[in-house]
Amino acid sequence: MARRAVVTGGTRGIGAAISIALKQAGHDVVANFAGNAEAAKAFTDQTGIAALKWDVGDFDACAAGLKEAEDTLGGGIDIVVNNAGITRDGMFHKMTPEAWNDVIRVDLTSLFNMSRPVIDGMRERGWGRIVNISSINGQKGQMGQVNYSAAKAGVIGFTKALAQETARKGITVNCVAPGYIDTDMVAAVPQNVLDQIIAGIPVNRLGKADEIGKAVAFLCSEDAGFITGATLSANGGQYMCG
Ligand code: NDP
């Protein structure tokens, strides 16, 4: 059955792969983005998926953006994928309040901002899927990423708590925790560091964005209705927890 879906940061990298996987699964999709209009236009031209710009760190902007997405898709949002994320890496003893706040706002507060406006509609309709993109570094911690690790660990706590609240309303809430995936975010990592990282991944390669996209599409499917509050690790065996 076709559902109405919004993917944050859905025009590039992992988010683009998620938007495409949801479309391939038969859903109607809006992809949100922050400011890279050129990438968003290229994505829409290539896929036919509408791209809408708003800042996921801003509650009012999310409420307005979700309303626009509902108008675009012709009804209430059934699927939200909270994928947008940023890094502001640095050792903690040098970390600025801005680097802390920016990451918490975009990577964690965005989950509240994007889920709160749609939750009533999902509860009324008795069906919903919320999938949040965490990270291996939220599971294990990573030096140089106290802000990011804290935000991504918070994503897992958010997921478990909301999953409990919504389970009886037909709404599932899950996380995917990717390891290192070949996107612009990872391209920013210096090559010598990347070589060391790949050496520590049992499958001996970076992940591909569409491997995450397809995992998310499964969690959004009817077949995944008994899976809620879960964190699906997709990291090539780099970190095995739980
Ligand atoms: P990219 O940097 O390639 O893309 C990030 C996307 O998020 C872009 O579409 C960007 O929009 C959007 N975005 C950033 N800030 C905002 C904002 N304030 N409001 C709305 N959209 C925003 O990231 P990846 O594809 O690599 O990562 C996607 C997610 O996966 C992130 O949450 C990341 O933390 C997580 N992750 C990534 C891993 C990896 O190895 N790549 C590993 C583990 C987790 P625009 O195009 O306009 O800039």
Automatic annotation (TrEMBL):
EC category name: oxidoreductase
Pfam families recorded: adh_short_C2 (PF13561)
One GO molecular-function entry: acetoacetyl-CoA reductase activity
Limits of the Ketoreductase domain: 3-179
PROSITE patterns, per the entry: ADH_SHORT
Keyword Cytoplasm: no
Catalytic activity, EC: 1.1.1.36
Protein biosynthesis recorded as keyword: no
Keyword tags: Oxidoreductase
Record InterPro entries: Acetoacetyl-CoA_reductase (IPR011283), KR_dom (IPR057326), NAD(P)-bd_dom_sf (IPR036291), Sc_DH/Rdtase_CS (IPR020904), SDR (IPR050259), SDR_fam (IPR002347)
Family: Belongs to the short-chain dehydrogenases/reductases (SDR) family.
Name recorded for this polypeptide: Acetoacetyl-CoA reductase
